[in-house]
Amino acid sequence: MELIPYHAAPVLGIIAYFNYPKDLQMSESFIFMFSIFHNLIMILFSAWTFINLSYVLYEKGIVFDNNYYFSDSHFTTIIYYFYISKYYEFFDTFLLYLKNKEPIFLQKFHHTGAVICWHLGYTYNVDAMWIPTIANSLVHTIMYSYYLGSVLKISQIRFIKQYITSMQLIQLIIPNILTTYYYYPPIESNWNYNIILVFITYVYILIGLFIQFYYNNYIKKIKN
Prior knowledge:
The chain is an all-alpha fold. The protein has 8 helices and no strands. The protein has one domain. The protein is globular, with a radius of gyration of 18 Å. The termini are far apart. The mean pLDDT is 91.
């Protein structure tokens, strides 16, 4: 029973995510301004995460060990805020509903899985979390910059679109390999390595979904 309070946040968050009022109506001007605000916040926060996490790695070095980075309060704070940001990313989907668009399964799975994985990683001090966090924050800095440019109709930024899925795939594949190899027990505890395996399983499913998305939106369209 003691574990219930620790795991209530992602459960309640996901329930709220899937029960968002899809028929909620907002003015176009509000949606436009909120889209700008949302993407700008995500750009600044993702860049902040990447820069600060890079600084921690520079100071402490690249070390693969149990609870090495989580013993640093600065690192713990960064991972905590990044974990909390996964709930805020739900607004990616909510904005689509406000625009009368239906999010694809990939997006829903991506957001719900991220909340669960970062929750487990932060709650149990899985040191390997620095790898997906630094990769994800870098890709998000670029990705949300593209989204903001699209909202503002900046045509010069359109070329990035076709590379976003490729970047997402790279930031999924490489961290998966690193965490699987470098944090294998006894480097990491068996319990924490099981959490890493949960994360890896989630990522492999994501990779399959992203490959399918890439094929349908780029390769298939070119063939047709």
